[in-house]
């Protein structure tokens, strides 16, 4: 019956046909070739038996906060490393990253007069898409490094062979990271009475330190004023909500984190609060979209300059068929030279159809370039340029930019050019640590937060 299959409706929207492993029937890009499939299956069983990293309640409360961001009553700050590494799962890297995110969110809350949704790119950001499946040096061709969850970066056959046991280690590292972040926050690390807890050692000399310290002083005065007035401590400012996210690229891992929970219908990915689909794996008929359509987490998709409006609308239909608030975000990452042309038709299509979407700007990934001396870098001016244009383009389209997605670190690295300290190509040699994409350092990240406040103020005043 060669024609019979044409009579069968497409399975795209058929949630009954979905299962945590139904992605296996679709084309899966960017997945490693594991040499030992029995070992892979054994690892998945092991992961399925371990406790989850997050709960469905947390996921639902994040979804509510994202719904607020869609409506303009919150702003999303999502940031962290391009890739976490096993070696950098340590106390200072984790707490420094948290400090930067807390400082940025303080700048945003104070300047925007809005609560912030805080989402880290951490506790699971261990798998990376690559532009080529293999790498050749001299006469040797080996699989590309795909993140610590898959293989190791050294150029040897042993290091580059995908090893499923790395998923177990990534899960444990994610749990340790999450445990430390939760303990810090529950212990009062984020307490607004003590913003000095978040100071990084070398902040005193930063060009923006003065502006930041003045703002912290003003907030401290306001808190003390309220406390004098009411005669009691202001509560609810001693802790914050913090959520986790990562690119849910390695589907065998994500599948094993996908669970049902008592008294809730459907399936949750309990390995992270907020998974996203990377630009390279966002094809409608691909395995990643198939996996994502069945989970109840809020989800995001990275979209680049080659996405057409009708593709975007089909993604909305498949990933958020019921138009659920807070469910779906598009993270646009066009590049400073493309955003003004490429973004407006996408915004217009979604607006015309009246679909609920959270728009987020990633001003990093469309602005990556290589320097003459071989460093992968990004110019602060291009990052700033894309972000500023994003606010303008949304304002012109009658849509709302509800958040930002950034690659940053609390370490004093020199990976992106420019910023208040005007880092040059020569500076890159001083402290370039990323094995993947260049990150904003503390000062550059804080500058971006201040810029968002300024730019949004200008838009509101127009
Ligand atoms: C990333 O976020 O590190 C990444 C690879 O992004 P994109 O999918 O947008 O290229
Ligand atoms: Co990156």
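Sequence proposed for the structure above (462 residues):
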């Amino acid at each position: 019956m060669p024609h019979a299959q044409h009579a069968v409706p497409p399975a795209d929207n058929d949630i009954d046909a979905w299962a945590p492993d139904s992605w296996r029937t679709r084309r899966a890009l960017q997945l490693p070739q594991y040499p030992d499939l029995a070992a892979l299956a054994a690892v998945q069983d092991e992961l399925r038996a371990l406790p989850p990293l997050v709960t469905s309640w947390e996921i639902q409360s994040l979804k509510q906060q994202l719904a607020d961001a869609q409506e303009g009553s919150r702003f999303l700050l999502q940031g962290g490393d391009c890739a976490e590494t096993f070696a950098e799962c340590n106390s200072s890297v984790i707490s420094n990253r948290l400090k930067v995110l807390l400082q940025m969110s303080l700048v945003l809350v104070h300047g925007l007069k809005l609560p912030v949704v805080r989402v880290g790119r951490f506790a699971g950001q261990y798998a990376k898409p690559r532009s080529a499946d293999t790498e050749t040096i001299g006469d040797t061709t080996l699989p590309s490094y795909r993140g610590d969850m898959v293989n190791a970066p050294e150029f040897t056959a042993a290091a580059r062979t995908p090893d499923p046991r790395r998923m177990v280690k990534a899960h444990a590292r994610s749990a340790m990271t999450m445990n430390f972040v939760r303990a810090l926050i529950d212990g009062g690390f984020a307490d607004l009475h003590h913003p000095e807890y978040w100071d990084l050692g070398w902040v005193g000399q930063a060009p923006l330190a003065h502006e930041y310290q003045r703002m912290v002083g003003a907030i401290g005065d306001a808190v003390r004023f309220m406390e004098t007035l009411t005669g009691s401590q202001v509560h609810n400012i001693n802790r914050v909500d913090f959520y986790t996210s990562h690119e849910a690229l390695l589907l065998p891992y994500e599948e094993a984190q996908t669970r049902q929970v008592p008294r809730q219908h459907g399936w949750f990915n309990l390995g992270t609060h907020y998974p996203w689909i990377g630009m390279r794996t966002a094809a409608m008929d691909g395995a990643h979209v198939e996996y994502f359509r069945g989970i109840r987490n809020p989800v995001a998709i990275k979209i680049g300059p080659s996405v057409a409006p009708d593709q975007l609308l089909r993604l909305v239909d498949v990933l958020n068929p019921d138009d659920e608030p807070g469910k779906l975000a598009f993270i646009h990452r066009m590049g400073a030279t493309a955003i003004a042309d490429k973004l407006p038709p996408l915004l217009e299509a979604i607006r015309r159809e009246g679909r609920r979407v959270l728009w987020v700007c990633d001003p990093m990934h469309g602005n990556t370039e290589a320097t003459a001396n071989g460093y992968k870098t990004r110019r602060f001016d291009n990052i700033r340029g894309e972000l500023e244009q994003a606010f303008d383009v949304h304002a012109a389209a009658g849509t709302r930019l509800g958040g930002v997605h950034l690659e940053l670190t609390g370490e004093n690295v020199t990976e992106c050019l420019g910023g208040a300290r005007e880092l040059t190509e020569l500076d890159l040699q001083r402290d370039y640590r990323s094995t993947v994409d260049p990150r904003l350092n503390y000062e550059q990240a804080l500058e971006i937060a201040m810029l968002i406040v300024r730019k949004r103020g200008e838009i509101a005043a127009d």
